[in-house]
Amino acid sequence: MIKGFILALQFLTRIPINIPVDFNEKNIRSSVFFFPVMGAIIGGMGSIVYLLISPLNIEIAAFLTMITLIILTGGLHIDGLSDTFDGFLSNRDKDKILEIMKDSRVGTFGVIGIVILLFFKYILVKNIPNLPIALIFSLSNSRLVASYIISYKKCARPGGLGELFNKSNPKKLIIISHIIYIFILIFFNKAYIIPLLVTILTGEIISCIAYKKIGGLTGDVYGTIIEIGECISLLTFWGLFLWT
């Protein structure tokens, strides 16, 4: 499990951990268990930046928080969102969509997707009261949902990175991680389950679209689920805090 934690840290973040870990089935399976923990770590570090700068200027704090999140993830999931937008909005057949998604070049729809997502996330970060709680749990929510989808949904591209995670068969560990995570949410506030449920629904909707478009999911789609899931969870927290 320790090797799985290190592998998850190396794969989902750009935090320098110079410990060699074999990219084998056992370690991959264990790493998926720690996906929501990686979200909490990234969200926690972003929250520290926000708490330090927000007393001085809220706009700058929100901007630097965004930059911190991008640096910590290396833009990995944003790149996946860009490729997914380029492919899914091209209105081509399955094979052509997969070819477009594999292309390293960024198209018009990809740029539009990135701009809208980052601008919307900036607005949310700037306006959500009690941001650290929302940020930590939202980044955890999106990665928890991604871990479930990786484990239970069909892969569209044989031999891809997504298939490696899927074939590691982390289903039992995912069930355990979900149970632990729900207990943590209840411990803090029962209402925090609402953003998780909305994030799960978002992941299911994106998965349904992916099934229609390409017959399954890819690593790019997982990244899209994480990025859009973060925004939807933050938006739900914003509404929850206003309501309560």
Q: Could you describe the 3D structure shown?
A:
This protein has 244 residues and is mainly α. The chain has one domain. Helices cover 78% and strands 0% of the residues. It is built from 12 helices and no strands. α4 crosses α7 and α11 runs antiparallel to α12. The model has no long low-confidence stretch (mean pLDDT 91).
Question: How does the SSE layout of this entry go?
Answer:
Elements: H1 2-12, H2 25-33, H3 35-53, H4 58-73, H5 76-88, H6 94-102, H7 108-127, H8 131-152, H9 161-167, H10 171-188, H11 193-214, H12 219-243
Helix pairs in contact: 1-2, 2-10, 3-4, 3-8, 4-7, 5-6, 5-7, 5-12, 7-12, 8-10, 8-11, 8-12, 11-12
Pathway: Cofactor biosynthesis; adenosylcobalamin biosynthesis; adenosylcobalamin from cob(II)yrinate a,c-diamide: step 7/7
Membrane topology: Multi-pass membrane protein
Protein name: Adenosylcobinamide-GDP ribazoletransferase
Summary tags:
single chain; 244 residues; mainly alpha; 12 helices
What is the helix content?
over 70%
Largest sheet: none
Q: What is the H/E string? A: HHHHHHHHHHHH
What is the terminal-to-terminal distance?
38 Å
Strand content: under 5%
- Form type: globular
Give the beta-strand count. 0
**Radius of gyration, taken over Cα atoms and rounded to an integer in Å:** 17 Å
